[in-house]
Every structure is written in C-alpha cells, then in structure tokens.
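From the shared-data thread, chain only:
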Amino acid sequence: MPINLPKDLPVIEKLKEENIFVMDSDRAHTQDIRPLEVLIVNLMPEKEKTEHQLLRLLGNTPLQTNVTFLRMTSYQPKNVSSSHLEQFYAVFEEIQDRRFDGMIITGAPVEQMSFEEVDYWPEIVTLLFWAKTHVTSTLSICWGAQAVLYHEFGIDKEALPQKCSGVYPHQLLTPHSPLVRGFNDTFLAPHSRHTTVGYDKILKQPELETVAVSDEAGVFLIQSKDQRHIMATGHLEYDATTLRDEYERDVAKGIPCSVPENYFPEDNPKNVPQNTWRAHTHLLFSNWLNYYVYQQTPFEWSSTK
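Structure, as tokens:
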C-alpha cells in the first residue's frame, strides 16, 4: 500500500525510482480508507536524506500511511533550505490537536551535550508529554532513543571512550517478540554514536525489556512493556554509504576518527561498502507498523479518551 505525501515533496521521485508506491495528497483524498497517521520528528541535519531513508521503509509495508513531518522551532538547521522546512514541515502548534497512530523520533548530532543543553530539549519534553495521550506507539532512533530513555525512564546516556562506528552482529534476547518476528537469531546493524546506555541500568528498570544486544555495540533494541515505546540505539535505516559519508566528512574536517568497523570490504575505505542489514531494517519497520501501531490503534480516535 502507498505512503501519502505532499504533492511536491522532492524525495517522491527518488522513491518512485525504487518502485516504492507513493500517492500524493490529492489522490489520497479520493480514497475511502482510514490510513495510518505517522508523525516523523526529523532531527537529523541532512533532512532530505533522512526523509528518503524513512519513507522508503514506511512505503514497503501493506499498510496505507499518511506522513507528517515535524520540525523544531528553537533551532534553524544549516543543511536544508528554510523554504523546504516551511513547505513540508509542521510545527507543534499546528499538530497539537491531532492524534497520530505512530511517531518516529530520529537521531540528532547533539549526543555529546547533556540533554538540558540542547536548544530544542524543552520542545522534546513537551512532545513526549503530549504523545502520552496523542500517539499509540513511538519508535525512536539513536539520540531519539536516548532522549526517551532519559525523560521517560530516568536512564541517562554515558560517554564512550571512542566513537562507536561500524556494522556489528546482534543477538536476540526475546526472539518471540512481535518486534523482531522474522529476524535471524544473529543479525547485523549499523551504529554511529559517541555515547551509550548502560545495559545494567535497563535491567533495573521494570518497565523495559531488552530485545537485542551486541557484544561490541551494547544494547540495541529496547521496548517498554506497554509497547508504547520502541527504542533503537543504532541506525538500521541507514543507506549502504551513510557510514562512509560520515567517515569522509570527519576526515575532511580533521576530526580524529577510526575507520568504521566491519563495514568496508577488507576494512579498506577505498572499497565500496555493502548493505548487509537491509532485510532486517524492513522487518523492523513492518513489524512496528503492524503489531505496535495498526493492531493497537483505534479505528476512530474520537471514540477514545
């Protein structure tokens, strides 16, 4: 089924080239169907790349989905035009009276700052309070996952001695969880972060369940036992070349960094990296939309309190 997007969103043409079923808003209005409403809080600096990555995944499920992008008002991104934000992104005041079946909170390049130092942290706090009564399930990624763990469950992030960057094997701890239905017992996923969350702290939180971990990268998939929060500390949504782009960017800036682990063939940055995590990425997003959003959300929000 299609994702329904604003008619002139630039990424639509890229999605069509990948045979992702896209329906613009004009045609969607003629459909007699109750699509899922998903809010994407895009905090990544290169917003159009993140749009492409996430919409590709939402558009590859059998569920029809309306997508709304949300931006922060307290920070002006440098890598996207103001016209793009104004045309395709809403602000909180414009959506606060709406209800959403699902919400995605992306990562953000602010993890080495304390949460309270982030310009838009008050907006994130407001958003998470609002989501308790306006969103069925939230999928948060990397810094977004850390923000949820901190605000909702009192678990702060911890600095790593060096950046965790690479593609790592993970083991399922709860293989019967609907979130990882269809996953291999061991699977690969990319990570790119300077901080982590302590596994011991998560184990002490009775409201949380660890779904998957990595010996090298630590805790990866966590869910709240009420299934309202799904947290991924890595970046399954990344394209094959995203870690390469980040590495080359840091090298060009003179930032000390190591070659991403287990990523380039023969660990040689001159070799073209392969996407070895794609199948599990699609499974994760499909499972979340199906089991945690579609099967949990009311058909008519007005019928719920």
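The domain at 3-159+195-239+277-303 is CATH 3.40.50.880 (Rossmann fold).
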